[in-house]
Write a structure and sequence with these properties.
Elements lengths: L2 H8 L2 E4 L7 E6 L12 E6 L2 E5 L3 H8 L12 H8 L4 E2 L5 E6 L3 H23 L5 H15 L5 E8 L5 E8 L2 E6 L3 H15 L9 E5 L5 H11 L4 E4 H11 L4
Parallel strand pairs: 9-10, 10-11
Antiparallel strand pairs: 1-2, 2-3, 3-4, 4-6, 5-6, 7-8, 8-9
Length: 253
Amino acid sequence: MNCQEFADALSWRCTPIQTNYAAEAFRLVPPVRMWDGTLLPLYVFSHGDQVELTDDGAMLYHLDVAGFDVGTDQRKWRGLERMFGQWGVTLSDDGAMQLLCRTAGVKGALLRYQGALFALARWQHEHAGRPMGADQLIVEVETFLRVIYPDAAFHRMVEHRGISGRPIVFPLQVDATLIDSLVPHPVATSSLVSKIVDFRSVAENAGAELTVVVDDRVDSERLRGDIQVLTQVANPLRLSELEDQARQRMPQH
């Protein structure tokens, strides 16, 4: 395993650590923000041909500090266990997030672990009554797209010019397809549609492939209207559909 390779491939901060517990050990910081902005570290321990991913209890500690009533009562962990289980992540007896894999499957395991963290972040936002922001959404979208298209070329913050002459920036491009995201809201939807119309009004951009991933964990009536509007200028894709595709393609070992 190579810490720098992890950092380059996933754009996560990676730091080698010294421990008697494993032959090799790294501390990674996935770019998944909890509802209060906290980033939860992840520890990677190599035991021969087997690799252990764990948060060393950081998740439960964070929930306790953030005021979520989970604590040490394992009966209260069941909802978290079901949520994490969809990504192959378990909770140890002391409540640490844990995932075991073979050395050859580390990258896929890290993506599954990140999927579990996104599920946790959504759970927190729902219970705190605060919607996830657009910046967090595009990170989630990129994670799922990297699972679905592992060999594609990914580019961030791709700039074009609109008919207005102003720069038009799309947060992601996968091969030839531009990617944007939307948390439905009247102002956000209007702003995004105006941006796309400005972009498409340039003749050479008229036929460009453009997908907008829409967060469909919101009011369904608002969602239907926004998707209908987006269909006129882009290819809208529900986040839940993207997540399902990614989960089905994630390696399990």
